[in-house]
Amino acid sequence: MRIGFIGLGTMGGPMAARLLDAGFELTVHNRTREREQPLAERGAQRAASPREAATGAAVVCTMVSDTPDVEAVLLGEHGAAAALEPGAIVIDMSTISPEAVRRLHASLAEREVALLDAPVSGGSEGAQQGTLSIMVGGDGAALERVRPVLEVLGRTITYVGPSGAGQVAKAMNQVIVAGTYAAVAEGLALGVAAGIDVEAAHRAVSGGAAASWGLTHRGPNMLRNSYPLGFRVRLHRKDLGIALDTAAELGIPLPLAAYVAQLETGLIKRGYGDEDVSAIARVVREQGGLDS
After folding, report:
1. Whole-angstrom distance, CA of residue 100 vs CA of residue 70
2. Do the beta carbons of residue 19 and residue 7 sit within 8 Å?
3. What's the rounded Cα separation, in Å, for the pair 156 and 124?
4. Residue 190 shares a structural domain with residue 277
5. Which residues of the chain form beta strands (DSSP E)?
6. For the chain, first and last CA: distance in Å?
7. Which of these, 89, 94, 6, lies nearest to 47 by C-alpha position?
8. Strand 45-46 vs strand 89-92: parallel, antiparallel, or unpaired?
9. pLDDT in the model for residue 57
10. Which residues pair with 134 in a beta bridge?
11. Which domain holds residue 253?
């Protein structure tokens, strides 16, 4: 099976590498073309445009930053859609608005091309290790056809409903991540301020009801006040914007998500937008006078 893979950033690059290592024929394209080179050295074909990446492909995976980027790589002047044959499947693994997914789904359906919205969770570690959680919306039969592709990338592949449903599930995920990280930051700040052995306390609470992925994998960074990249603040803020807009359309209040969005907006304005999203602990620590 030939796969076209478009978008080779923090997540897309290691995901494409896993597909290559699994034996798929891979053609890659990235807006910043030098990111294609490491994969080309391992056997991938390079493409000068999304359309070229899609030529001859049974499946096209897209992993780009935002709704306009997905629209451009699929339907733009040099977009992938023009090269896809009837029966091809597009797997968009970006995080974009559910409404945009439904528009793209309708447009591609006119070409007899299926679109699955399949956003992921698990950070750069999950992309590298193939342990992502993948939330899939769209046609269930199309999902079964590409399941061997997704199984290389994720440990959990869950069909959640029709077109756009995957993005709603991802919005849920990002709201929960926001609340979890904020709570971890506040809890750890309390321990630091009290002067206890906070690393021991971290181990203790990680074994109880407070246990979470964020506490285990990002808590130590918060204690060090160091935030190496797993998932960028600015991208999580974009995702929370999608969640808040969707919630507003549905009449659902999300006060905690709105609060974290404000924290992230402030971090971005101060130049921390490319740090890991756990950098919201910066704000909590500063407000508590722990880093003065």
Report:
1. 9
2. no
3. 16
4. yes
5. 2-6, 25-29, 45-46, 59-62, 89-92, 114-117, 120-121, 132-137, 154-161
6. 56
7. 6
8. unpaired
9. 98
10. 120, 157
11. 168-287
Strand, coil or helix: 140: helix
Q: Who's near 110: CB < 8 A, 6+ residues apart?
A: none
What does the alpha-carbon distance between residue 50 and residue 74 come to, in Å, rounded to a whole number?
7
Question: What does the chain come to in residues?
Answer: 292
Q: How far apart are CA 224 and CA 282, in angstroms?
A: 10
Regions of the chain where pLDDT drops below 50 = none
pLDDT at 292: 63
Q: Does 38 reside within a domain?
A: yes
CA 121/CA 127 separation, integer angstroms: 9
One-letter identity of residue 265: T
Two structure tokens written together for 151? 């199984």
Contact 30, 59 (CB under 8 A): no
- Pick the closest to residue 285 from 263, 269, 255 (CA basis): 263
Residue type, 116: L
Ramachandran area for residue 112 (φ above 0: left; ψ -120 to 50: alpha; else beta): left
- Active-site residue, selected from the candidate residues 51, 105, 170, 232: 170
User: How do residues 3-20 score in pLDDT, each as one tens digit?
Assistant: 999 999 999 999 999 999
Q: Which helix (H) or strand (E) holds 146?
A: helix 140-153
- Same domain assignment for residues 118 and 133: yes
Is residue 141 a part of any domain in this protein? yes
- CB atoms closer than 10 angstroms to residue 227: 21
Return the pLDDT at 230.
87
Closest CA to 2 of 80, 111, 88: 88
DSSP class per residue in 18-66: HHHHTT-EEEEE-SSGGGGHHHHTTTPEE-SSHHHHHTT-SEEEE--SS
* Known active-site residue 238: no
The CATH number for 133's domain is: 3.40.50.720
